[in-house]
Amino acid sequence: xxxxxxxxxxxxxxxxxxxxxxxCWDPGGEVLLWADFAANDIGQTRELLIRQLRINPxxxxxxxxxRHPPKLEWFDDYFFLLVKGFxxxxxxxxxGVVHISLFVGRNFLLTVHALKSPSIDxxxxxxxxxxxxxxxxxxxxxxxxxxxxxxxxxxxxxxxxSRLEELEEVIAARPSDEVLLELVSYNSRLKxxxxxxxxxxxxxxxxxxxxSQGFSxxxxxxxxxxxxxxxxxxxxxxxxxxxxxxxxEGYISLNGHRLNQIMKTLTIASVIFLPxxxxxxxxxxxxxxxxxxxxxxxxxxVIGAMLAIAGGLxxxxxxxxxx
Length: 323
Description:
Elements: E1 2-8, E2 13-17, E3 32-38, H1 42-52, H2 57-64, E4 71-74, E5 78-86, E6 97-105, E7 108-113, H3 118-128, H4 138-151, H5 153-173, H6 177-209, H7 217-283, H8 298-319
Parallel strand pairs: 3-7
Antiparallel strand pairs: 1-2, 1-3, 4-5, 5-6, 6-7
Helix pairs in contact: 1-2, 3-4, 4-7, 5-7, 6-7
């Protein structure tokens, strides 16, 4: 699906439609174009971007790839920015990633994404209604998209903080393998997030320091704002990963200490029974007077005692959380 809007600066009129509006746009004029490509049809998207909008073919290839790290690339009359946002199905750290490519020029903004982008979907109605400040140019629209992308990161990271605090209490009270598996999953996902955040922070850092022809002082401040948010998120994700790793190490240490205590108890029990077993092994049960040997129910009593002892030990091990 391709959706397009044109902003006419004279009467502040906005036209919204499909890809047919691209043909009504003059690259050398003052009308601002925002075309959003939900690239379900990669061939059509590639054709429009390269032939009609004159976007560099290599940049288009990067924009349409399934996997690519965030990047910023400058061209003569526009720049290409690729970022990663959370998909619509994201819940907590069980996140999906949607690649969002932005081509920003003097009078156009092109957004390309293969999957549904909640950040752009939430902003598009405001654009159609004229609630966005189009007079500030495509760089301002780019900033608004980036803020929506970055703002969707914060609840996930902050929600993880409270979950890690809960896991810390669980580890202290009753550690389990499920807790360790959850921590390993969090550590792995946070590592990926931190790598992505690092790439994007570097891109935003370059943007805020850029002195492009289409950049105003407002653009510099806006990209500075995005950079600062990204910097805090990068720092927070690093902190959360360190906390998850510390909890993993704490779990392993507590489990090791608990195992040592169990081994200590079992060793004491073994030492107590070792001399008794030694005496029984040498001397045996060689007594002339053993009345219980001639009891008709003696065998069943012994079997019952064995089962009772085994059951009692299992119950005790569970109560003491050894198993």
